Amino acid sequence: MKLLVTAGPTREYLDPVRFLSNRSSGKMGFAVAQAAAERGHAVTLVAGPVALPTPGHVSRVDVVSALDMLAAVRRLLADQDALVMCAAVADWRPKTQSVVKLKKAEMPPAIGLEPNPDILKTVYPLKEGRLFVGFAAETGDPLAEAQRKLTGKGLDLIVANDVTRPGAGFEVDTNLVTFLTAAEPPRTLPLQSKLDVGRAIVAWLEQRVSGL
Hints:
Layout (H helix, E strand, L loop, with lengths): L1 E6 L4 E4 L2 E3 L6 H12 L3 E6 L10 E5 L3 H12 L4 E4 L6 E3 L18 E3 L3 H5 L7 E8 L4 H10 L4 E6 L11 E2 L2 E3 L6 E2 L3 E2 H17 L2
Helix pairs in contact: 1-5
C-alpha cells in the first residue's frame, strides 16, 4: 500500500517567538510510519514540529501550521491508498500574526482567535476508495467522542485513548487504545509500545484491503 501518515502538533504563531500548540510529541504517528515501512509499504510522513528522527525508508514532509498540513495532505493524497491522521492539529489560530516580536507592553489583553479547518472533514470529498484512519485523544471516557468523530468524519477506523491514563498520554513510548469501526464492537488493546499499536493499525489496514 501507499500510506500517508500525519504526526505531531501544529504551531499557530502569534509572532515570531510565540505560538499556540499542544503537547503532542509525534511519537504515535512516527510509530505508525515505522510499522508500515517495516511491512514494505510506501510511506509518506507529514510531520509537524517534532524532535524525532525519520524512520527508515519513510519519505518525510515537514510542516508547521494547520494550514501547512492541510495543504500537504491535499497535495499528496491523490497518490495514496490510505490516510492515517495521527497529528494533533491545533483547533484555533490567532486572527493576526505579527512579523516582529510583540513587546510586553504591546501585547493585547485578549488574543482574537479563528478556527482552523478540520483536515479530515476538508479532504473527505477526495476520499473515494481510500481508507481513512483518525485518532481521538481525550480525557475521561473517550469512546463517546470517538464514536462521534467516526461518524462525523466518515472514518473507516478511529483509534481512541484517554491521555490521562498512566502510560497512555503524551511524550511516552506506550499507549492504551481502543479501535472503533462502524461494523464491529470496540476492541481495546492491552497497554503496549506505540510501535506495537502502529503495527496493529497497519495490520487492520492490510486486512481491510485484502478483504479478510
